[in-house]
Amino acid sequence: MMAKEERRVGYGLPTLLAIGVHVLVLLVTALRWPDADVEPSSSSVVQATLVTTETATDQAQRAKEAQVRAAANQQAEQAQAQEEQAQEQRQAEAQAAEETARQQALAEEQARREAEQQAREEALKQAQAEAARRADEAAKQAQLREQQAEQRRQEEARQQAERQRQEEARRQAEAEAKRKAEAEAQRQAEEEAKRKAEAEAQRKAEEEAKRKAEVEAQRQAEEEAKRKAEAEAQRKAEEEAKRKAEAEAQRQAEEEARRKAEAEARRAAEAARQASASSLDNLIAGEAESIANAKQAAQAANGFINLVRRAIEQAWILPASATNQLRAVVRIQLLPTGELVSARIIESSGDGVFDRSVLQAVERAAPFREIRELPLAAQSQFREFNLDFNPKDVRR
């Protein structure tokens, strides 16, 4: 708005100011021009007044002073007339001097007028020059203001363009930030949805795996229970068969023992009958033979125990967790034929896996038919015995 107002001023105002200054100078010059010539006085005093460009008040003061001077001149003339009447002799001389003075006053007045005219012309020239200078200065000022206004307009346009650019940059930055925020929010939402979907899928998979594990565990438990039931039934059947076999073997053994005892008794009676005729040396030899037979039976029994131990250790599969500090004692019961009747832990190692491995080794190593090679007395002694098992015995 300011730029438009300054553009409307242009060079019109300086031109009007210059014209106004010229008119003022002309008016002052016209006011200072005298209306009539002032008659010179009869006195020898010539007064010259330099007319300058003064105000109306100064002109009124000078008119008043002229009137006073005129009155004074009139009085002087009256006095002079009286003096002329009194001094007729000097009248001619006075007139001559007065004429001379008048001529001189006229010349001075003419010179004064010319000087005033020249002064007025010079003042007019100076006024015109000052007006031209002021007009030129006003034009320069107007042109400078126009340039400044143009610079301000350009600066305002530049600032406006800069503000628009900054506003556009800010708007674009806000739009970009909003777009990035929306994209980030969408990405996070997608990641959250993906994470939830994966978590849900994992949860379902875990639930499915858990369900399958439970079903499998239940199936295995049922199979284990079935297997245990079958094993228990088989064990009971085997125990019953073993019991019957043992009873039958016991009966047969007792029958054999009774038969052998009867035969031995008959043999002993025959020996006693024959011994009555023998000497004392024969009795001593028989006693020595009995002692040798007893030692042989003991050695056979010890060999049987070592044989059973070696067979079990060879069939023994040691658990990975077995240490040399574990120890278990097993009670083994056999039939006369060497068949395993039972095997049970009478001193546990405290490790169920280790104890079961010992029992399984006994079951895998049976039957122990070497028992039939023992003497009858030893057979009855080793049909039930204990064995001590320790991992270090196997690892040696």
Architecture blueprint of SSEs:
Elements: H1 2-9, H2 12-32, H3 56-86, H4 91-275, H5 280-315, E1 328-334, E2 340-347, H6 352-365, H7 376-381, E3 384-389, H8 391-395
Antiparallel strand pairs: 1-2, 1-3
Helix pairs in contact: 1-4, 2-4, 5-6
Taking all Cα atoms into account, the compactness measure Rg is 82 Å
Shape: rod-shaped
Q: Level of helix content?
A: over 70%
Low-confidence parts, pLDDT < 50 over ≥5 residues? 2-6, 43-51, 279-293
Strands of the largest sheet, in order across it? 2-1-3
According to DSSP, the number of beta strands is 3
Characterization of the model:
With 396 residues, the protein is mainly alpha-helical. Among the domains are: 2-169, no CATH class; 298-396, Fusion Protein Consisting Of Minor Coat Protein, Glycine Rich Linker, Tola, And A His Tag, Chain: A, Domain 2 (2-Layer Sandwich). The protein is 77% helix and 5% strand. The chain has helices spanning 2-9, 12-32, 56-86, 91-275, 280-315, 352-365, 376-381, 391-395, and strands spanning 328-334, 340-347, 384-389. Strand 1 (328-334) and strand 2 form a beta hairpin.
